[in-house]
Design goal:
Elements: H1 27-42, E1 55-62, E2 65-71, E3 76-81, E4 96-101, E5 104-112, E6 120-127, H2 136-150, H3 158-162, H4 181-190
Helix pairs in contact: 2-4
Length: about 190
């Protein structure tokens, strides 16, 4: 009996060349890009939060690349942009990569569009939609809390420290579950529960 090979209906283009590293803080570029998206295509969508506006928050270099958060009326995400450091990897749109931070590894999704004003970025979704935020200040505070948690070492309580570590489980055997405890702790901190 012959085996059928499954092929995706769509395969995103691989970057033809390495992403250009940003020498300077990309805050203004990100704000201009997402403001243009807001003005031209997202403004009338039913899931947007009109109380919010576009803001790039807390961008700083980490291991040579740019890390921060972006708030729009439709999402709040962590972002990594190339800065010539060790975090960045050129990937096709939709590819996922685990990036190490002091809190632990987090999974980021690549976006690649060479014709865009933001040709390459990697993002980790925090909130989408952002309807739970009543004010811009509350959403910015959530972004700042996420960045604080991202750069803080994970807190291990005494009960967890007493339990011996489990042997690693292969990714294919555990592909649907969250195999990085630091990720859960990170999101608990962002939600104010840890």
């Amino acid at each position: 009996m012959s085996e059928r090979v499954r092929k995706p209906l769509f395969e995103a283009a691989r970057p033809a060349e390495a992403a250009v590293a940003y020498a300077d803080d990309p805050t203004a570029l990100l704000e201009a890009h997402y403001q243009r998206v807001w003005d031209t295509s997202m403004h009338d969508m039913p899931f947007v939060n009109p109380a919010l506006s576009v803001a790039a928050i807390g961008f700083r270099r980490h291991d040579g690349d740019w890390v921060g958060a972006v708030l729009t009326p439709w999402f709040l995400n962590l972002f990594v942009l190339p800065g010539g450091g060790t975090l960045w990897t050129d990937l096709a749109s939709g590819d996922r990569v685990r990036i190490p931070f002091p809190v632990g590894e987090l999974e980021f999704i690549a976006d690649y569009d060479p014709g865009s004003t933001l040709p390459a970025c990697q993002y980790c979704p925090l909130f989408a939609p952002v309807s739970q935020f009543v004010t811009q200040e509350a959403a910015v505070a959530a972004a700042e809390a996420a960045l604080t948690a991202l750069f803080a070492a994970p807190v291990v309580d005494a009960a967890e420290a007493a339990v011996p570590e489990k042997p690693p489980v292969s990714q294919s055997a555990n592909s649907g579950s969250d195999d990085v405890p630091a990720r859960r702790a990170f999101f608990r901190r962002v939600a104010g529960q840890g």
